[in-house]
Amino acid sequence: MTLSQSLFIICLLIAASGYFSVAEISLAASRRLRLRQMADEGDARAERVLQLQEQPGDYFTVLQVGQNAVAILGGIVGEGALSPFLDAALALWLPPATAQTLGFVGSFLVITSLFILFADLLPKRLGMAEPEQWAVRVMRSMQVCITLFKPIVWFYSRATEAMFKLLGLPTMRDDRITPEDILAMTEAGARAGVLAAREQQVIANVFELDSRTVASAMTPRDRIAFFLRDDPDDVIRARIAAEPFSTYPVCEGDIDHVVGYVDAKDLFQRVLNNQALSLTDESLVRKMLIVPDRLTLAEVLEQFRQVHEDFAVIVNEYSLIVGVVTLNDVMSTVMGDLVGPADEEQIVRRDENSWLIDGVTPIEDVLRTLNLDELPHAEEYETLAGFLMVMLRRVPRRTDSVNWGGYKFEVLDVDSYRIDQVMVSRLAEAGAAAPAQP
């Protein structure tokens, strides 16, 4: 066999090995969501690739048989083609034994380098760049190979399956997509510029609905605007003017005895018709949705959907009112300031290293703003005020502070034992955690 014939055969073997490399990496790296999209658009090859991903045994058996056969043939042909010429060239300057040894080593290195570069690295880089496109391109030719090598495929596939069963290893790929997978994909999309940062945050907030309790989005008890059942007309009008909301709870005697709620639209309609406002009118007071304070936001959304309401009163285990929540409150946790209320923001950034935060701000929002993973004893509180109470082990007073995670949390204002404002400042030595300091 002449040198040109040997080199031609080596090129064919490299091309065959490269083909098997592309076929292997493209099937393994193909995304099922993208393949399903291609199949829905009418590409029958994508449907076949999806089926092979479910049962890839025969496919990979052909690949391994082909790759190993090509590698062995490449070694045999390459050594026989290049060694004599390298031996003859080196024999001009070296002893025959040394020239023969170095010729063999040189032939081995050249052939191995060619296969690594052109039959492995380059094809796999191409397959990783566009795995779905390459997978559908090689599908038909791989099906022909599977048919041609059916007996060999059958033998090795059965032997492999027997080994898997003997070792108790799984033979099916787990393609379940978890919330963590989706969040990782959206974060990667945001870093790549495919998703806007705000869009990625909205998606992350949606998945938080199952973990955040309703207390993190509610209006607390001391901020609830409500009516008593026997409030006269002038009191109702004055409260609407002072605290304009769309919905008001109606109570009997005190806030812990809610009998229903009244819609501001119904009140306005009566005002426009010059009718007196009286909450003793049963047609004006609607039935109230009551939910426990340990429900998650996702569960509250489901309750809203079932009863076709968008307003609920939240009670604790002692049947005391702790707050109210609306559909807009829940959606504000998802959409952020896109649908947030028109009142003052809960978190205001003062400068590069300090924030002014309302005490009732949900702790998840505080963590996100400060880029912290968690705060200590996280299971014991829902808000920033709760964090300070747990850390101080008492009701905080003005100027009380807590140092944690490289930040100083200082109480600025307390109103009737309720923490109104907290100043959060970045410490000079970030990451140092210090105990609470009165």
From TrEMBL:
Coiled-coil positions: none
Q: Which residues cross the membrane?
A: 6-29, 69-94, 100-122
Query: Could you tell me which residue ranges the CNNM transmembrane domain spans?
Result: 1-199
InterPro entries listed in its UniProt record: CBS_dom (IPR000644), CBS_dom_sf (IPR046342), CNNM (IPR002550), FAD-bd_PCMH-like_sf (IPR036318), FAD-bd_PCMH_sub2 (IPR016169), Ion_transp-like_CBS (IPR044751), Transptr-assoc_dom (IPR005170)
Query: What keywords are assigned to this protein?
Result: CBS domain, Cell inner membrane, Cell membrane, Membrane, Repeat, Transmembrane, Transmembrane helix, Transport
CBS domain boundaries: 284-344
Q: Where does the record place it?
A: Cell inner membrane
**Where does it sit, as one GO cellular component term?**
plasma membrane
Membrane topology type: Multi-pass membrane protein
Sample GO molecular function, one term: flavin adenine dinucleotide binding
Xref: CDD domains: CBS_pair_CorC_HlyC_assoc
The free-text function statement in the UniProt record for this protein reads: Involved in cadaverine and putrescine tolerance in stationary phase. May facilitate the efflux of both cadaverine and putrescine from the cytoplasm, reducing potentially toxic levels under certain stress conditions.
Cite the PANTHER family for this sequence. HEMOLYSIN-RELATED, POLYAMINE EXPORT PROTEIN
Family according to the record: Belongs to the UPF0053 family. PaeA subfamily.
Can you say what this protein is called? Polyamine export protein
What is the originating organism of this protein? Paenacidovorax monticola
Q: What is the lineage of its organism?
A: Bacteria, Pseudomonadati, Pseudomonadota, Betaproteobacteria, Burkholderiales
